């Protein structure tokens, strides 16, 4: 298990230092690494996705536990270090690249690697039903769009367990009326059961970030939207409704969909109501109404 000294030595040997522009804050608390893996309940039947492998501290523990590990690392210096470190591990795939192709699209290499790994696990153990899980110390700058995209991506993830900035965790768990309540909260709360695992102090990372972090677990649950693209369309509706937070819901929806549809969706609501003032239940009802007309 890597300590701060180990990470410093690895980086120094390669003439490197943490790149804050990539959100590189390496988790150095071994107990929290183990807690992350235990909370995700990783087993040899699992294909695990780790985004932001860094120098491989968490990756090493995951490779020992998971059936197959897919590690994504964008840093052009760290990715080769990971590839060399796991070159002799048949159950590890290292992807050098961004986990996101664009803000609203996952890098196609990621689902391809997960699908391939799951198929190989299933072939090796016919009695098993391999699951796909995200277990990661997520880079701060891509955490929100990555979570949103993984919610609607294929293959569907059976669990997501990760460390994240506390402010993003607060946005995920926010209630209606709270200034943090928005598309992220509504989408995740609609599609997942959320468990706060732990609060994480800045000192658990190196270099220490200026903010506290949280460990969350998301367990997908049945949602009320039918059809392969239904959740994605609902998320599009949410983004549009919150596009201009100071404007009314009707103002935003009029710019997103046909006036007749916007009128039907907002009928019975206060003309001055804003998106964040609606409850989760109301949003689900609006989503079903929108999907019925689209």
Structural notes for this entry:
- By secondary structure, the protein is an alpha/beta fold.
- The longest helix has 16 residues, at 109-124.
- It is built from 12 helices and 11 strands.
- Helix content is 41%, strand content 19%.
Short description:
With 294 residues, the chain is of the alpha/beta class.
The N- to C-terminal Cα distance equals 51 Å
Mean pLDDT: 95
Percent helix, as a range, is: 40-55%
Q: What is the total tally of β strands?
A: 11
Structural descriptors:
two-stranded antiparallel sheet; alpha/beta; 294 residues; globular; 41% helix; 12 helices
Give the helix/strand layout.
Elements: H1 4-13, E1 26-27, H2 30-40, E2 46-51, H3 57-65, E3 68-73, H4 78-85, E4 92-96, E5 100-102, E6 105-106, H5 109-124, E7 131-137, H6 143-152, E8 159-165, H7 166-173, H8 183-191, E9 192-200, E10 205-206, E11 213-220, H9 230-241, H10 249-254, H11 259-266, H12 280-293
Parallel strand pairs: 2-3, 2-7, 3-4, 7-8
Antiparallel strand pairs: 1-10, 5-6, 8-11, 9-11
Helix pairs in contact: 8-9, 9-12
